[in-house]
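Request: Could I get any protein with tokenized structure?
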Amino acid sequence: MGAGLFPATSYGNCLFLTVNEIGFRLSILFVFRFLSPPLFIPWQAVASVESKRLLFIPYTVVHLQRGWPTIMFRGAAGRAIQDAFVDAKGSR
């Protein structure tokens, strides 16, 4: 999460993502969850989702409305968010 080329926060393999037709949910591994409850972001709060590439590494960038931080996802998580966002946008 964060702005610029290098994100301000990286959760590595401790972040869990759940994607559905109304939005996506981020949660942290239970060991680290103290004072960090799960966060649900509805598709209405998402301004755009775009695919980018840094050298050979593809990633997905989620831009939220109202100046919230940009969120970047790699791999299957990014593809799942992009697919669900396109489906949600098409069904509006």
